[in-house]
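batch job 7 of whatever, protein = GH92 family glycosyl hydrolase
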Amino acid sequence: MRITSKISIAALAFGLATAAPAQDSPAPAPGGIADVDPFIGTGGEGHTFPGAVAPFGMVQLSPDTDTTCVIRECYPHAAGYRYEDPTIQGFSHTHFSGAGHSDLGDFLVMPTSGDTVALEPGDAKTPGSGYRSRFSHAEETATPGYYAVTLSDAKVRAEMTAGTRIGIHRYTFQPGAAAHLVLDLRSSLYNYPGKILWSSLRLHPDGTITGTRETRGWSAGRKLHFAMRFSAPLTSHAFLNKEEKVEYRGFQAPGRGSNALSQLSGRALVAQLDFGKLDRPLEVKVALSMVDEAGALANLAAEPGDFDAVRQGTAAAWQRELGALEIDAPAPMRKMLYTAFYHTLIAPSIAGDADGRYRGPDDQVHQAKDFTFRSTFSLWDTFRAEHPLLTLVQPDKVNSDIVNSLLASQAASPHGILPVWQFHGRETWTMIGYHAVPVIADAYLKGVRGFDANDALDAMVKSASYAPYGGLDDYMQHGYVAIDREPEAASKTVEYAYDDWTIARMARAMGKTDVAATFDKRAANWRNTFDKGTGFVRARKSDGAFRTPFDPTAINYGSDYTEGNAWQYSWFVPHDQAGLFALMGGDKAVVSKLDKMFDFDNSKLDYSHAEDIAGLIGQYIHGNEPSHHVAYLYNYAGAPWRTQERLKQILDSQYKPSPDGLSGNDDLGQMSAWLLFSAIGFYPVAPGSLEYVIGRPFTNRTTLNLPNGKRFAVVADGLDDAHPYIGAVTLNGRALDRSYLRHDEIVAGGELRFRMQAKPNRSWATGKAARPFSTATAHN
């Protein structure tokens, strides 16, 4: 249905005098920010978005190319935007960066011009059938904190920027054209009938619009509120409830002191906002709050400034954050790495208001004291490398915020456990394990403070002892999760064992020897899943027998393994690889089995039913996290040159500086963190061990500007494609004949220098004492 309206109103504007010029703002200063390409990962399987976001910002203001899909059809559009799409449906304010699932896409805004206004998105295949518009990548640009595109059908130049809790749109309409906005509260990512539980719109006397939406999506009962102001007064408007065919049109300007406003509630709200013919760009400033509309208004007031001011401030913030790394590498690698770094600094995003209030997992409003509440915890993915990266490059404030947010969520959890996969303070119960535990333990062991360690340890123990969760009752009684009582039992057993080891490590560091002893014993439970007969980790039934039939290549959701099979999960013993390797038959047998994994012939296998199985190299699956540490395991078997070969194979085949440059979902920064660590030259195989396993460098020089003011440089002499192997390594000028670095060696500052050569050095770091940490051969 098309609606036109000529009703005139008067309203106050938030900044007519400071409205921006029609042309785009100048490009940001050269440096790290200039090397970021937000379009990397927006095609293929990356699921990233190109829009505007501040570091860890609450608002991710980005284009949505299609939100009309339903459930599984939406998987390619998990981030709202897909590079291959020819149209933009609108610009919404919340997005995940690289998730394997989705939700969000809140409060979609779309500019239109002309005498009539379409209030339905229309069909992407039929131009002019709705408010969506075609666009060209040639007229599209993105840098950290800024996005712009020309909407060819709407004949509007659209620009986006974002602050911490705000987003600002700037729309330049053609001279003489009537300017309109469509505000669609029906639009959402991963949509399906009944997802919108309730929504509301209200127009305040000063021209501000506020609203609320409650959804039942990936998380149930998620509430989000907004406040929106304009740089030009509305001339007319219409609020419509498309479900009940109810509408509110126009606005009678109130007199001074009047509390009059127009408002509408329902489950299918859309608004038409009219501005007449404008002589300057229209700015739309939007703030979000998970607490209430008053919080959104307060967040709006907390970040003053027009489009250019906010864009400049956010660009400066990104430049500061990206300045933690100085990367010297060929341009394509430099672009990939700075973009990867950018992607690691989007989440965990701020989810609390400027006044410290936040909504917890109990759906109640809480007040944060001395920390900023953060959410968007994809912990099954990010405990591996994303969070260890943040402990290196982020000030303690960010890391203590993360830990305090996890603890606050546990305290407010109806189940009394730490988050599993949480966003906007709401739990989704997606994936397995209690991987907030290694995040907290690794941070504590690396010296992060600013939280109550005793409370943290208590929360970790409670999470590991909550019997109704994921087969923990059987795990605590029998030492393994029983497959006839709980799906994905093999994966759960080995992941619980690793998490338990990190509890033991933190408890011991705190002098809690009784807790440490309990969880040290539990950390050995991985042994109960290993089948010497087949050489694989397998699921056991409650009677103790391994489940049959057994196919190590089978991938089926709800089976013995989580998003993988026996080939990937049989290597998941990060804390005791030496113990695992002894059961596998020793170094030679392990190297042979690793080679078989990478060289496996998949030609007769079909994994098309499994969305997350991408980036295959044999049975190594780089597009999903269970494989991410595997290339480094040759080091534990005394063959580090094989790790060096496999890393080059992975980087060459799984990453490139283009929209389809990620082989799998970035998963809130994990794929990017893997690339960043691996390109620098080392990787945290076992967070909590205080060690990083050396791989090989892929940059000429990378310098870490550490939060403590120290600098740690990684230099590769003679690096090129003809010299892919490590010949020798020195740390601060002294020969280093071990294949790991300690965390304290990095944060002390200094230089790690590699001499690269054409052929493998089969004697470097091969001895037992030169290998990384394992419980069975502990050297720290």
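notes: The CA atoms of residues 87 and 561 lie 39 Å apart.
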